[in-house]
Design a protein that fits this description.
Structural class: alpha/beta
Largest sheet: 6 strands, parallel
Strand content: 15-25%
CATH topology of one domain: Rossmann fold
Radius of gyration: 23 Å
Number of helices: 15
CATH superfamily of one domain: Methylthiotransferase, N-terminal domain
């Protein structure tokens, strides 16, 4: 009888990609993926450390697993991801129910570590930074997923050291995967049915891979993916404003498959706060990037990330952020109150009053949501291209996304999954477009 593994994933798209790789890897030692925790022999919790209380969230989740298996044989419990990297052996000391702790740069050691544990029952933590060996190993694991839209990690780690961020400490220095290794994996994804490739990295546009006579950049990857038959859409995330080079910007003019939504976190509309954050870019430069892209491609829209209430933020800084939002009119963004992360420079700074931060966050979110709803409203009574990803079984409706990553729900045959179809938008809300599909409108065979 085969063993079963249940994987729960918190956090970013890269964690989703890593979880898929983990399940593919575990098949080589007899573990089949399970959608049901109760039937699992192994529980893997893939963790995220970017927000406050991430550590406590992990222990709460482990407690839920312990309760679920109270009267049954205990599963093998493994904590992976960024909290595992940050807390390492402390997790084993604090929570006896955890068996193994493995950091995100050590997934290539996952199978041998599990096999050793099954043999000697000795708990272990592995949190080495060994990105090169990791990707060389994982590149040989055949991707078995058949998702219409697939994540593909091309770069990991960060050398920017923004004062609020833990990524350099949990994911290590910047590392770019070999160019051909990425193209090969993209081809395998297409063979498995992928129509959209989303390139991932902590600083995805910092991608640099040097060979003897050439340095490959993100722009080279995009234009190479452009040539692969079967790929309909290309996206990438998350970017840093400092690395929006002209060759990358010009892809929005030269590529027909690169989608026109640019997710470019700015964090604040105040140069003073950006300097305190150690972001190494200025608001004027950010707006210049936006204006250049709008000039070469009128379809371009921006989304972003904002940290509200960063230490030192005064009313003028806050008002400058509002001014920036009114200038760019972001169509979809994430905003949070500053959350100090242990070990970062910002964690040592004096926080501003929490009540002030909450008031400012509410104002910012109302502003952002207003532009988001306005953009969604502009789609009503129009036909839009939708890449159909799957069926929502409970509603018996199809789910897909438009070029701006908006969720689109409409009635239609499952035969449309994997195709780019035209859908008439009949209704919208803040997060979703409700549409109608008609056979009289031709769809693009993806």
């Amino acid at each position: 009888m085969s063993k079963k593994v249940f994987v729960k994933t918190f956090g970013c798209q890269m964690n989703v990609y890593d979880s898929d790789k983990i399940t593919d890897t575990l098949k080589n030692i007899g573990y089949e993926k399970s959608e049901d925790l109760d039937s699992a022999n192994c529980f893997v919790l893939n963790t995220c450390h970017i927000r406050d209380k991430a550590k406590e969230k992990v222990y709460h989740e482990i407690g839920r697993v312990r309760e679920a298996f109270l009267n049954k044989k205990k599963p093998l419990v493994i904590v992976v991801g960024c909290v595992a990297q940050a807390e390492n052996s402390e997790m084993l000391n604090r929570e006896p129910y955890i068996d193994l702790v493995i950091g995100p740069q050590s997934y290539h050691k996952l199978n041998e570590t599990i096999l050793k544990f099954e043999k000697n029952k000795q708990k272990n933590e592995i949190t080495d930074f060994d990105t090169l060996e990791k990707f060389n190993y994982l590149s040989k694991i055949q991707n078995k997923n058949s998702k219409v839209s697939s994540f593909l990690t091309i770069q990991e780690g960060c050398d920017k050291f923004c004062h609020f961020c833990v990524v350099p400490y949990t994911r290590g220095p910047e590392y770019s995967r070999p160019f051909n290794q990425i193209i090969d994996e993209a081809n395998r994804m297409v063979q498995n049915g992928s129509k959209e490739i989303i390139l991932l990295g902590q600083n995805v546009n910092a991608y640099r891979y040097k060979e003897v006579s050439k340095e490959f950049r993100l722009s080279d990857l995009i234009m190479s993916l452009e040539k692969i038959n079967g790929i309909e859409r290309i996206r990438y995330t998350t970017s840093h404003p400092r690395d929006m080079t002209k060759d990358l910007l010009d892809c929005y003019k030269n590529s027909k498959k690169l989608m026109p939504l640019v997710h470019l976190p700015i964090q604040s509309g105040s140069d003073k706060i950006l300097k305190l954050m150690n972001r190494k870019h200025k608001v004027k430069e950010y707006i210049s990037t936006f204006n250049y892209l709008k000039k070469i491609n009128e379809k371009i829209e921006f989304s972003s990330d904002f940290i509200i209430g960063y230490p030192g933020e005064e009313i003028e800084d806050f008002e400058n952020t509002i001014k920036l939002i009114d200038t760019i009119k972001f169509i979809n963004s994430f905003s949070f109150i500053f959350s100090p992360r242990p070990g970062t420079t910002a964690s040592k700074l004096k926080p501003i009053d929490e009540k002030i931060s909450k008031v400012r966050l509410k104002i910012i979110q109302e502003k952002l949501f207003g532009y988001q709803k306005l953009k969604n409203k502009s789609f009503e009574n129009k036909y839009i291209d939708v890449l159909v990803e799957n069926e929502i079984k409970e509603q018996k409706k199809l789910f897909g996304r438009n070029i701006y990553m908006n969720s689109v729900i409409f009635e239609g045959s499952k035969s449309l999954i994997g195709k780019v179809v035209q859908v008439k938008v009949v209704k919208t809300n803040q997060n979703t477009l409700i549409g109608e599909f008609s056979n009289k409108y031709k769809f693009k065979a993806a």
